[in-house]
Design brief:
Helices cover 34% and strands 14% of the residues. Strands 8-7-6-9-10-11-12 form a seven-stranded parallel beta sheet, sandwiched between helices. The chain has two domains: 10-107 and 297-315, NAD(P)-binding Rossmann-like Domain (Rossmann fold), CATH 3.40.50.720; 109-288, NAD(P)-binding Rossmann-like Domain (Rossmann fold, 3-Layer(aba) Sandwich), CATH 3.40.50.720. By secondary structure, it is an alpha/beta fold. The structure holds (2R)-2,3-dihydroxypropanoic acid.
Length: 331
Amino acid sequence: MSGTPPRRPRVAVSRTALPGGGVARLTTRFDVTAWTGTQPPAPAELAGLAQGCDGLLVLGSDRVDAALLDAAGPALRVVALASMGYDSVDVTAAVERGVVVTHTPGVLADTTADVAMALILMARRRLPATMDALRGGSWGAFRMDAFLGLDVHGATLGLIGYGQIARAVARRASGFGMRVQHHHPRRRQDDALSRWVPFDELLRTSDVVSVHTPLTDETSGMIGAAELARMKPTATLVNTGRGGVVDEEALLTALRSGNLHSAGLDVMTDEPRTDPSDPLLTEPHLVVLPHVGSATEATRAAMVELAARNIEELLDGRPAPTPLPGTPAIT
Ligand code: DGY
């Protein structure tokens, strides 16, 4: 007797051509609909794509809120982010609707830490400005007083947050001869790489302050005018976490007034930034990158792979491997 074959679960993917084999594998098991636009989907377009799906694979820049979850409908069981950060997610709305949300810890810390180290070196040694001078034909004769920066070796690095990425930065920094200290509000312990210090002491005594805390209501704007004023005028601020943790206006003011030596940002409050006259992009003592912390082929493929695996496991009735901290792994 032939019956109707069971409905294959539906999975929506918010981008076309994601790296690695994760999405291709999903298509062998599920009915996958991927966004085909060259630009990311607007919220209403993502809601349309998600309608009726059982699983949704999105990037960290896609907003996952009650409107999206409701548009997807009651079949939705899992939203898998190909991203470690999840400030784009209304976690309460997802938990209330019984939707498991997953992210990608464990696969991008080293790659992102490489970029944090690069920003420390570029900003402190003012390397992008020296390249601009070279390309502009103004190298001139060798001068003992030209292109001078500040040493990285021997400097004290202060890490705000002490999760996977911060610890990967600590490992690199100790190899560069830096002293490492960190502040984490709850986990107050030292380890072989770094010692815990109070937040105020970290700001006052670090030559480089590197931000690695997630963006939450508590951390939004946590590096503002008052915190920058407590830092050394010879200090460098680096942010590879989320733009909203740093008050960008206050940062520009501190750099322009000479109250801060330099800064390096891989993340900004509003992304992308496309206006070439944007003060954040033109400030000479600020090195800015377009959110490339995890941007290597291998790491981006691993992020998509882990997101796909979360969908497979959950839709197969097993716990998702990497749910958001403090949230259920299974519906
Ligand atoms: C992350 O994983 O959080 C990166 O910022 C890329 O979204």
